[in-house]
Write a structure and sequence with these properties.
This protein is of the alpha+beta class. Helices cover 43% and strands 17% of the residues.
């Protein structure tokens, strides 16, 4: 199978694992740490240079996913080199000091393996899925790609056109466009507000020195994790890491790519294009980080608001009160609540798609009304239903060795620890109505909002009226 490089935008980086909130859920979290997990738990080893190895052996599997998760993405860039992390992802498969691009493709093809990569705002990931017997060779290929990438000038020039075409495709994905703009206005002038691909002028001007400097600055042992899931042996992985990654240098400063927490800015961006048949609107408040004690409370609150899509044929027969209102009033084609987390901040909100242009202000009103209800009158039945949905979503997503490896890698590079499936279930089970209300009062109660709107948006209230509408509801 040919090697490919995958782009993961704002919508793809929206789930991770962390801890709980107020007193009741905090006690539940503490109990979960003290209670032996009934499900397998990863093994961990750290080399002298700070490079971490994590593995989870899954019985009866014949394949494994192995990869390296790096605590560096587009957030580790500056305005001048924005787009470098994603550019590197493309070049990783274009040849090393000992392998040509064709050599890499043939080796992966002959192994029957799948090699891939993606870049997010805070992480870069290189991983492969292979047969059990091919794990050593797969780790060696990934290490070669990471450490010995050739960064040939001709390959760099060829990839500019590839990335520009990719950017054109992303522009056709309205959800990606809206969420990129939402980040840009919510975190104006800050690294978290920049796009992953970078602006066109950067794509055209990024040099080999830019790429080398990014590697030298960010690809450090203490910010990297080798993860294996499935048919893996931990001691074998540790030996492989010692062989191929022990020479990776340690950074001078451990931890996050940025010491400064981004400041959330209440603001908006509107891009009106009446040629687009729908209005795409995202409204968000500042949300929670991966490590925030309110992380799971935010997810339960998100599940109470819910999602709805008229094409699914479920009409208004959903647990969410907002979905019933939207369906009965024909107010939108779909909506999606979201809770996007980063290492020190996040975005919590709702994304609407509608062709009912006269009902856009009603959408905003009913959405804000549901946010208000989270603070005052959310019911126990709603919370219990939301908890069940959340557990299903989180736990069923861990289906397959790649999903498990991604979950372990993401948690380790962002929080420094892994919360097991058993712990997740205990934490969510311990969340109460008061916990959800406490989250809403803390994060939604008359807070500034960031708004990104795209398409046929003539009917959208201006920012001040939206902000006043949110504030005027009786909290």
């Amino acid at each position: 199978m040919p090697v490919s490089a995958a782009f993961v935008g704002a919508a793809a980086a929206r789930a991770s694992v962390r801890r709980v909130a107020s007193s009741a859920s905090a006690r539940s979290f503490a109990r979960s740490l003290a209670t032996p997990a009934t499900t397998p738990y990863p093994k961990f080893t750290t080399l002298k240079n700070g490079f971490t190895i994590a593995s989870l052996e899954i019985p009866y599997t014949q394949t494994a996913t192995v990869g390296v998760w790096i605590d560096a993405g587009s957030r580790a860039e500056t305005e001048a080199n924005n787009g470098t992390a994603h550019f590197l992802e493309h070049l990783a498969f274009k040849g090393t000091q000992s392998r040509s691009q064709r050599d890499i493709e043939l080796e992966i093809e002959n192994l029957g393996a799948h090699l891939n990569a993606y870049t997010s705002r805070e992480n870069t990931v290189y991983y492969a899925k292979a047969f059990k017997s091919d794990v050593p060779k797969t780790v060696e290929i990934i290490s070669d790609i990471l450490i010995n990438s050739k960064l040939d000038k001709s390959a760099i020039d060829r990839e500019r056109d590839v990335i520009l075409r990719e950017a054109e495709e992303v522009e056709k994905q309205y959800e990606e466009v809206v969420f990129d703009h939402l980040h840009a206005v919510a975190f104006q002038g800050q690294n978290l507000g920049r796009t992953i691909l970078g602006p066109k002028e950067n794509i055209l001007s990024i040099s080999r020195d830019d790429l080398s400097n990014y590697i030298d600055t960010n690809y450090k042992a203490d910010r990297m994790v080798l993860v294996g899931a499935g048919a893996v042996n931990h001691e074998e992985l540790v030996a492989l890491a010692g062989k191929y990654f022990a020479s990776v240098p340690t950074s001078n400063k451990l931890g996050a790519v940025s010491a400064t927490k981004p400041q959330f800015v209440g603001s908006e961006v509107r891009i009106r294009d009446d040629a687009i048949p729908c209005a795409h609107i995202a409204i968000a408040v500042e949300g929670v980080s991966w490590k925030d004690p309110d992380y799971y409370n935010a997810l339960v609150a998100q599940a109470v608001i819910g999602n709805w899509d008229r094409t699914l044929g479920n009409g208004s027969f959903l647990g969410s009160k907002l979905s019933y209102t939207v369906a009965e009033g024909h107010l939108a084609n779909s909506y999606m609540s979201f809770s996007t987390s980063y290492s020190d901040t996040g975005l919590w909100g709702i994304y609407y798609i509608t062709e009912n242009f006269t009902g856009i202000d009603d959408l905003a009103y009913y959405g804000f009304r549901e946010w208000r209800r989270l603070s005052t009158s959310v019911t126990e039945g709603e919370v219990e239903r939301a908890k069940a949905k959340l557990k299903a979503s989180l736990l069923l997503s861990l289906d397959g060795t790649t999903a498990v490896a991604e979950d372990i890698g993401r948690q380790l590079v962002t929080t420094g620890r892994v919360v097991s499936a058993a712990e997740i279930e205990q934490i969510v089970n311990g969340i109460s109505v008061k916990d959800v209300q406490s989250f809403a009062q803390k994060f939604l109660w008359d807070k500034d909002i960031a708004v990104a709107a795209y398409g046929s948006i003539e009917g959208l209230l201006d920012y001040n009226r939206l902000r006043n509408l949110m504030a005027s509801l009786r909290w």
